[in-house]
Amino acid sequence: MTNAKLFAKLRSLLEDATNADKKHIQKIRKVLRKLKDRQADLRDSLVDVESLPERQKIEQEIAVITLQRVKGLEVYRRLKNARKLARQGKLKRDSAETDNDGATPGADG
After folding, report:
1. Of 6, 50, 67, 99, which has the highest C-beta tally within 10 A?
2. To 5 degrees, how large is the angle CA 90–CA 20–CA 70?
3. Is residue 107 in some structural domain?
4. What is the pTM of this model?
5. How far apart are CA 83 and CA 5, in angstroms?
6. Domain carrying residue 95
7. How far apart are CA 17 and CA 15, in angstroms?
8. H or E stretch including 88?
9. What whole-number distance in Å separates Cα of residue 14 and Cα of residue 28?
């Protein structure tokens, strides 16, 4: 997949990030992993490049990928934490409901 396609896919995943489910978060992670691999490949190829214009072009691509990854990682972490907190809140709510046996908290019979 080209950089442009990876950026487009990441952009569409980030735009649809409201109420993201586990599958959506995994897709974001997969695209971020591909971008990280692409960045590493470009860094490796940078060692072999001798011409200044080509070198600058590769460095610019690396910079763009880095910015996109940072942006994507922020959203990924936020979604993952929100999902974790929601799951913990649900677990606490469920356990509180079963502990109370239907009685209101603080109400002594």
Report:
1. 6
2. 115
3. no
4. 0.73
5. 27
6. 3-99
7. 5
8. helix 52-100
9. 8
